[in-house]
Amino acid sequence: MTVLPVAYLAPREWYKAYLTDPAQTQIEALESFEKQTCRNRCLISTPDGPLTLSVPVKKVEHKQLTRDIEISYQSRWQHQHWISLVSAYRHTPFFDYYAEFFRPFYERETKWLWDLNSGLHEVIMSLLNNQRPKAEGLQMSAYSYLPTADWKNEDLNRFFGNGQSILDDLFEFGPETIGKL
Fold first, then answer.
1. Fewer Cβ atoms within 10 Å of its own Cβ: the N or the C terminal residue of the chain?
2. What pLDDT digit, counting tens, does each position of 118-139 carry?
3. pTM of the full predicted structure?
4. In what helix (H) or strand (E) does residue 50 lie, and over which residues does it extend?
C-alpha cells in the first residue's frame, strides 16, 4: 500500500507514484496538517521561471487534521491563481481545451482544502485517462481514512523534491501526458 499526502495541483512525481498502482494507493486525510507544503502549495512553470501558488488557510491548530483545514478567502487568491495559470499556460497546446475544467475551482468558494484538492485531483485523473471530467469534484468518501504516519516536510522534499505541478505536462502534452510519466 502506497500512502501519499493530499496535494494542491500535485507535482508530476506525486502522480508517478499514484499511477504506479492507484488501487493500492491511499491519499492521507488523517495526518496532522503541515503548513507550507504540497498540501496547499504548488509550483508551476512560467516564462519568468518557477512560481509558487499557495492556498491560504484559516488558523491551524496544533495537530489539526488535514481533512479539517478550512480555506481562507480574506485575499483574492483564486483570482491571482487563475491569472497566474492563464499567464503561464495560455500558449501551451492543450490549455484552451483543458482550461474549462479548472476554471470552476477558481470561480466558486470551497470550504475545505481537502475538497478543493480532491476535486482538482479527479479532474486531473480524468484528463490523464483521456476522459471528460465529471461536473462535480471527487467526494471525500472516495478515499480511505486509515491513520498512517504523518508526512513531514523533510519527507515531502525527499520524495517529491521541488517538482513542478502536473499541470506543466498536462497543458503541454495533453492525452500523451500519462505515457510521459
1. N
2. 999 999 999 998 887 765 544 4
3. 0.84
4. strand 49-54
